[in-house]
Structure formats: C-alpha cells, structure tokens
Design brief:
Shape: globular
Helix content: 25-40%
Distance between the termini: 92 Å
Order of helices and strands: HEEEEEHEEHEHEHEHEEE
Radius of gyration: 28 Å
Largest sheet: 8 strands, mixed, barrel
CATH architecture of the largest domain: Alpha-Beta Barrel
CATH class of the largest domain: Alpha Beta
Length: 284
Amino acid sequence: MTDSRNGKLKYLLIGAGLIIALIGILFLIVPEKVDEHAGQVFINDGFEDIWITPYENVPVSSLTQNDFRTVNGIPTYTGTAYATELGVDVSEHQWTVDWQAAARMIDFAYIRLGYRGYTEGGLFLDPWYQTNITGAAAAGLDTGVYFFSQAVNVGEAIEEAEFVIDNLKGYRVNLPIIFDWEHIEEEARTDNVSEQTMTDCAVAFCRTITNAGYDAGIYFNRKLGYHGFDLSRLADYGFWVSVPGDFPDFYYACDFWQFSFEGTVPGIEGSADLSLHLIPVSAS
C-alpha cells in the first residue's frame, strides 16, 4: 500500500515538473510585445495627430508653447536661444505699400519676385516687384525675395532660379531667396507631381541660387513638410514654415515662422502675412 502511494506521488511530481517546464518553454518562445512606433515621434501635421519617423540629419526644434506669449496678436519669444525679427511678405495683391509706415512696425520684408503660371507654365515678373523691393530697402528693412514655383521637373526649377537671378541684378537682398512651391486647389499642371520630383525641383532651385552667391531656402506648410518634401535632402537650406497660431508647432527647427495670414501692418491695406525670423543666439 505504501509503495503504491509513493509511486502515485512520484508520478504526480514528475507530471507537475513537466507542466512547469512546459510553461517555462512557452514563456521563452512567446515573443515580447514589439513597440510598433519605436524610433518614431507623435506630431500634428496640421490635420491630425500622427506618427512619423524623423530624419536623422535635420535639426529638431526646441521651441514649445511656453516659449511664447502673444501681445496684440503678435507672438513674442520669451526665451534666450533666439533673437527675433518681425516681417511681412507681399505681392501684387497688396497693391501700394507705404514702406516708411510699415517700417515703424516690422524689421524685414519678403517680396514676391515672380511666379510660374499653373496652367500653361509661363514665367511672370510680379508687377509690383521693383516698386516693393526698392521701397522696402529705402525704408531700411532687411529684404528677401521669393518665387512662386509650379515647376514640374528639374529643368523648369533651374529656369525659375535663373529668372530670379537675372531680375535681382541691381537690387540689394540680405535674406535667403525662397523657393515657394505649393499645391493649387484648382486644376493645375502640377497636380500629378510626385514628392520626389518636388524635392528634386527644390534642390535644383536652391543649388542654382547658392551657386550664384545667394543664400537659399524653402517655404512650406506642415502638410508639405511632413508629407511632401524630403527635408533630409534640403537640410543645407533655410526653412520658412507656415504654421498659423501662437507657436511654431513643427517638429524640425526653422529659420522663419509664418504665424498669421491676417495681420495688420501700417501702410498695408487689408490683411498681411506675418512671420518671425528666428535668429540663433551664439552661446559665447
């Protein structure tokens, strides 16, 4: 009787050991839960909150909403890493600008030099370009120009840059020359341009501009910044980011932040686009 009980106990212990061993093996072979967003960051692209994989070679913004306070509709940077200047961008749509009056409020002006048509693709000089750049410079403002691009290939982007260079002769600019490629809401010749082609065009434009001795940059909103341009290929150029609001809510660092399309500037009738130039302060 005792031997029988001992035998049963022995088999029970063996069975328990096998169960424990099996459980251990199962724990070993079941894979750990993988973080599907490892290496990614959570951002708002202007429409929704999404995950993105950041570029390794593009500097990240250190700015937060706590770095700004808004006074009379103008965001004011309260930190110490940057000096800031306030500026406006204008085109023929602003008509006559009293630059002496505007200079009492702003520090710089971006002037549209020209544009490419979005239907037939012709190159055009902004009718108010010469008047605006001359007036802004005479008022003592820092000046820069931008070109509204609708390039569909590298050749057209280079043509646009050469058009800018030719029409800059005799004028002073001390801000980067900006490539402004935008999607058109109406039917346009650029409707089917790929993200790679957009970036190819931006690189070609900026490279042509810098080869001529000027600084170059790219204007874009969050949609194009996150879903359009390959910013890793454009990191050598300035970024002008359009993020209307009270702080530059963009993952990457920018040189210019366009914060309003509805600003009020003395000497300019109607609404004006306002931007801050974020100038890094040397640690020394």
